[in-house]
Amino acid sequence: RAADRFAVLVERGAEPHIAEAFFVAGGVVRHRAPLDADAWAEQCREGLAVLRRLSRVPRAPVAPEAMDEAAVIEERLRQGGPDDGALVLPRGWRTVEVLEHIGCAVRRLAESPSGTPGALPDG
Length: 123
Known about the structure:
single chain
């Protein structure tokens, strides 16, 4: 299942007002970008372009050395949902809709101090 999954995870970054986006294809992170609360869209477009390119090639099973990473990603996707910064991309996903989701997650993180309800956990 992980080999067919495309997703974006947005989590709290190491610095205030910075989020971290993880662009997932084939069960592993294929692109990672720090997102400033005021300037995040261009970094996201790069990550989404990587996913778009990968969506056009046949998918192979998850490599044995990537199984731990795939398991962590799957757990994060099960724990969260779009409101928690975890978005599984459906077949035919549209960049504008994914950017809207990412923007909401980045704004939510920027507005919520660490550890408050509605904030994503660190890491």
